[in-house]
Amino acid sequence: MARVDVVMPQMGESIAEGTLSRWLKKVGDEVKRDEPIFEISTDKVDAEIPAPSSGVLAEILVTEGQTVPVQTVVARLETEKGAAIGGPGTPASSAQAGAAPGSAAPVAAEAAGARSAKPGGFPPAAQPNAGTAPSSHQTAAVRTPVPQPNGGESLADRLRTKSSPLVRKIAAEHGIELAALHGTGVSGRVTKRDILQFIESGAPSGVAVGAGARPSMYAPGGADEQRPMPEAWPGDRVEPMSQMRRLTSDHMVAARRTAAHVTSFFEIDLTRIARIRARSRAEFEAKTGEKLTFLPFVIKVVVDGLKKHPVLNAAVAGTNVIYRKQYNIGIAVALDWGLIVPVIKNADDLSVTGLTRQLNDLAQRARAKRLQPQEVQGATFTITNPGVFGSLMGTPIIPLNTSAILGLGAIEKRPKVLVGNDGEDTIAVRTCAYFSLSFDHRIVDGADADKFLAFLKHELENFPEASVV
Q1: Is 261 a catalytic residue?
Q2: How confident is the model over 205-262, as pLDDT tens digits?
Q3: What's the total number of domains in the chain?
Q4: Strands 55-60 and 46-50: what pairing?
Q5: Closest Cα partner for 443 from 270, 299, 324, 293?
Q6: Which residues in 149-186 are b (16+ Cβ under 10 Å) and which e?
Q7: Rounded to 5, what percent of the chain is helix, strand, coil?
Q8: What is the per-residue pLDDT across 381-430, written as a single tens digit (0 to 9) for each?
Q9: Catalytic pick from 29, 174, 445, 458?
Q10: Is the pLDDT of residue 87 over 80?
Q11: Torsion region of 425: left, alpha or beta (phi above 0 gives left; psi -120 to 50 gives alpha)
């Protein structure tokens, strides 16, 4: 008789923790190797995690909604069918009790993670009871540092200052000293939610996040009278945000606050693209097995435009500008449960056919929760396509660490005034769409953005037909 530990996987180099969002199996269920048994959410992706071996799910140690460090044991499998199953009073229930908020179990797990961290890496973080958003009246636990033989910092102090790369980046951009803050994570570690709430509160740097009345993202300190929390009325339905929705909310607030958003609009005539697509569609789909849409044409031209206007493929790093040499195009995909942005890496190396294959593959696996974290990281430019839902135009929010995002409006036929060969004006039916470019005015001037859009317009309206092959 043998038991196999099921652990929270490391879903990417920079990811230190994950939230177990849903169990797909219950205690006593038989599972097969590589069969999905639970879902997790990280700040990058939602994914289904397969069983490491076949057997019976004997114990569940981490409940739905809990956030735990990577490599934490979340369940155990009994490799022989019919073995004892954990219940009340068994190690399973004891483990669940030990994982309660404020207990020593997460601290021990994080300490173990810190010992096993690679040189130069960062130890995992834990957020006890992460399934419930902390209120403005909650305070972080105060832990007394344990004196060390060498007179240095305690393990708790070291863990508290070892925040995630994203938290450190946000702190650096806003001039915040993390060592002076006490967050809601283990040992007072500052989480992403903590620092976003702290920034929105307008408090001066050095004020402890966890001290006294903790500022709330929704009602920043000193603003409660101006912005009270809404209350549910009789008959209203109240439900907590999903993990993906909470992460999207945090990301959007941080992105909107960070960049100086400006949006320009161009109307682009896609009649030529529509004709090329119509002539090539049947042969293309027969040869590749993929559906040919307008989007691969747009991506192809966007990459060419980024090469001519590199500031649109750049990122702000304090007072420096990083000009990316990779062209990684993020494509926003709307799911029934939220929004995700898979990334086409090195898009400049792909033809229209290659872009089509990548697009369809990423979109299908996003809807099936089969994406890996690295497939939603590293975008240098993003395209969103609300036009598929009928939207004419919009002002999309620029993702963090990029300088622009392109929005595609609905593609539809419109009457347009054209100048004939004889110089006379005529009215013709053309296939058109509005393109919107939101750009970060800290580094992208309006002239740069408009030149980029003008390039897209010219190239799409004069797209070479041979490029489809």
Answers
A1: no
A2: 444 444 433 343 333 333 333 457 888 899 999 998 887 788 788 888 888 999 999 9
A3: 3
A4: unpaired
A5: 324
A6: eeeeeebbbbbbbbbbebbbbbbebeebebeebbbbbb
A7: 30, 20, 45
A8: 999 999 999 999 999 999 999 999 999 999 999 999 998 888 899 999 99
A9: 445
A10: no
A11: beta
297 and 432 in a common domain: yes
Indicate the helix (H) or strand (E) that contains 412. strand 412-419
Whole-angstrom Cα distance, residue 49 to residue 23?
Answer: 10
Which of the residues 224, 441, 448, 450 is marked catalytic?
441
Q: Which domain does 416 fall in, by range? A: 261-468
Same domain, 316 and 435: yes
Residue 252 token pair: 């959007």
Paired sense of beta strands 333-335 and 343-344, if any: unpaired
Q: How far is CA 80 from the centre of its chain?
A: 39
3-state secondary structure of 343: strand
In this structure, what CATH number is given to the domain that contains residue 52?
2.40.50.100
The residue type at 91: P
- pTM of the complete model: 0.60
The answer to whether 409 and 391 are in contact (CB under 8 A) is: yes
Report, in angstroms and rounded to the nearest whole number, the Rg of the chain calculated over CA atoms: 26
The percentage of residues in the chain with a pLDDT greater than 70, rounded to a whole number, is 71
Which single residue is written with the structure tokens 């909650």? 138
Q: Are residues 285 and 384 in the same domain?
A: yes
pLDDT at 15: 65
Q: In what order do the strands lie in the sheet with 17-23?
A: 46-50, 36-41, 17-23, 67-69
Residue (of 252, 280, 247) closest to 396 by Cα position: 252
Least Cα distance to 20 among 36, 34, 39, 7 occurs for 39
Please state the length of the chain.
469
